[in-house]
Write a structure and sequence with these properties.
- By secondary structure, this protein is an alpha/beta fold.
- It is built from 7 helices and 6 strands.
- The chain has helices at 7-15, 17-25, 35-51, 57-61, 65-76, 132-145, 170-189; strands at 4-5, 83-95, 98-110, 113-120, 150-157, 162-167.
- Strands 1, 2, 3, 4, 5 and 6 form a 6-stranded mixed sheet that branches.
- A hairpin with a 4-residue loop joins strand 5 (150-157) and strand 6.
- The longest helix is centred in the C-terminal third of the chain and has 20 residues, at 170-189.
- The model has no long low-confidence stretch (mean pLDDT 92).
Length: 211
């Protein structure tokens, strides 16, 4: 039984248990174009170097016009300009018998107010408040920080030039723990991994999938 889960693992299972089976149980590697992710990778790398005061002049010259526009938007974002604490920072949390964790884009603060930043060059989740990434990162940061006035998750939506802020509280903490525990127990107990037909069209495993 697997007791370690990342946001991507949980998202994959919720999308299609069969896809989860191929990807994380059987570890089947299918060829997939990296082109759609290149822009996001560049921006994330630049953002990390910039926050750590590493010189990025030469890297900036390699950006396309569209990438440079996105990068300038991020640099001007008020959340991105708060006091820097950590970037590309891994955190984990034990929830009952399960370990949950991931890598934060950045953790910043303004006094006793703390913010988890997540840069999106594509679209933000459809239900950001209850997205696995939101829930896991906030629970992990809550345990890591211990003492704070406020803690928020901020999706920096670079595509639509807006921020989506989710402020953590005790009510959400209880709901997140319950939701994640239910999902993790469901994954661990699953032995059939039934295919979700609705996602087949866009799945990289559709040619080998046995329903």
């Amino acid at each position: 039984m697997n007791n370690n889960f990342s946001p991507n693992m949980i998202k994959t299972y919720l999308t299609c248990p069969k896809k989860y089976y191929y990807q994380y149980v059987e570890n089947v590697a299918m060829p997939k174009s990296s082109l759609p992710f290149e822009k996001g990778k560049k921006i994330h790398a630049l953002a990390n170097y910039y926050l750590q005061n590493i010189k990025i002049d030469r890297i900036e010259t390699a950006l396309t016009g569209a990438e440079l526009e996105i990068w300038e938007l991020l640099k001007q974002n008020p959340f991105y300009n708060m006091n820097y604490l950590k970037s590309e920072f891994s955190l984990m949390l034990k929830l009952s018998d399960f370990w949950l964790g991931g890598r934060l884009d950045a953790l910043v603060n303004n006094g006793d107010n703390y913010y988890i930043l997540d840069y999106k060059t594509g679209t933000i989740p459809k239900d950001p408040e209850y997205d696995p990434q939101t829930m896991i990162y906030l629970l992990c940061a809550d345990k890591y920080l211990k003492n704070y006035k406020t803690l928020s998750f901020v999706y920096i939506d670079l595509k639509n030039k807006q921020n989506y802020v989710i402020e953590f509280n005790e009510d959400l903490k209880a709901k997140y723990r319950q939701n994640l525990l239910e999902i993790c127990n469901k994954i661990s107990a699953d032995s059939l991994y039934c295919c979700n037909d609705k996602s087949c069209k866009y799945c990289e495993f559709n040619k080998i999938c046995i329903k």
